[in-house]
Amino acid sequence: MTSKQKHIFLSKSINLVLTTAIISLTLTLVNYKGNEFFLFSWLRSWFIAFCVILLLSSFLPKIISDTVSMLIGKEDE
Fold first, then answer.
1. Which of 18, 31, 33, 52 has its CA 20 to 30 A from that of 7?
2. What is the Cβ-side half-sphere exposure of residue 70, based on CA atoms within 13 angstroms?
3. At what angle do helices 38-72 and 3-31 cross, to 10 degrees?
């Protein structure tokens, strides 16, 4: 793995963790009813969001790229 590939991998990983943490924290705060331990609720939400985003990020960008290419034509290389 080259230095550039390591940089891209690390950047995407940090982005994934921060994005899912912010989204799950926001949704947990919006839906917080006070009858459940807040930290556990947030961590559970974060874990679910992290798993979903990790799964989607493995194949969704390729599908979107292919669809856009089909709609507007291939990229100039």
1. 52
2. 6
3. 120
Q: Delimit the domains of the chain by residue range.
A: 18-72
- For the chain, what is the largest distance between any 2 Cα atoms, rounded to a whole number of angstroms? 57
Residue 53: phi and psi, rounded to 5, are -65, -40
Helix (H, G, I), strand (E, B) or coil at 70: helix
Residue-wise pLDDT tens digits, 6-58: 888 888 888 888 888 888 888 877 777 776 667 887 888 888 888 888 888 88
SS3 52: helix
Q: Is 41 exposed, middle or buried (0-12, 13-18, 19+ CB in 10 A)?
A: middle
- Distance of alpha carbon 32 from the chain centroid: 22
